[in-house]
Design goal:
148 residues, single chain, alpha+beta
Length: 148
C-alpha cells in the first residue's frame, strides 16, 4: 500500500477571484496564534510588445512536476521561517489583463516573518515553478512569456 502523502493542488482554472482571496483570509480567523498575514497577488499586465498589446495570458503546466517542485519550495520556506501557514494558488488556462493569476499567502506570529517568507516564496515560484505563460495579443498572435 502506498502511504505517500498526496500533495494538494495549487492550480485554479482561470483567474483567481477576489471572493476566493477574501474567503481564504477569513478561514484563518480561528487561528489565534497568527499575528500577521502577508499576501502577494500577481496580476496580468497589458504590456505592449512591438506595438501589440497583451490582452491575456494562457497558463499551462506539467502539473505532477510542478506540484513536486512546489512541495519542495514550500518545505524550504517552512525550514527557514517560523510560519503558521503558507498557501499558493496559481492560475491555469486563460487569464485576462487586469485579472489575478497568482496568490501567495503567508501567515506567522510576526509581520516581518510573514513579509520575508511571502517574498521568498514568490521569488522561488518565479525562478523555478514549471508554469508557462503564452501571451495572447490583441491581433490574435501570441508568444511564450519569459520572466525577467
Amino acid at each position: 500500500m502506498n502511504m505517500e502523502k498526496k500533495i494538494k493542488s495549487i492550480f485554479i482554472e482561470g483567474p483567481i477571484q477576489p471572493s476566493f482571496i477574501a474567503e481564504s483570509i477569513q478561514q484563518h480567523n480561528s487561528k489565534k496564534e497568527i499575528g500577521a498575514h502577508n499576501i502577494f497577488l500577481g496580476q496580468v499586465r497589458a504590456d505592449e510588445i512591438n506595438g501589440n498589446k497583451v490582452v491575456a495570458i494562457n497558463y499551462s503546466s506539467y502539473e505532477a512536476m510542478a506540484l513536486q517542485e512546489y512541495h519542495e519550495m514550500r518545505e524550504s520556506i517552512f525550514a527557514e521561517y517560523d510560519l503558521t501557514c503558507l498557501h499558493v494558488y496559481q492560475s491555469i488556462g486563460k487569464v485576462a489583463a487586469g485579472e489575478i493569476c497568482l496568490f501567495v499567502f503567508a501567515s506567522s506570529k510576526h509581520r516581518k516573518t510573514a513579509f520575508d517568507a511571502c517574498e521568498a516564496m514568490v521569488e522561488k515560484i518565479k525562478a523555478g515553478l514549471p508554469v508557462w505563460g503564452q501571451e495572447l495579443f490583441e491581433d490574435d498572435s501570441s508568444q511564450w512569456k519569459t520572466n525577467k
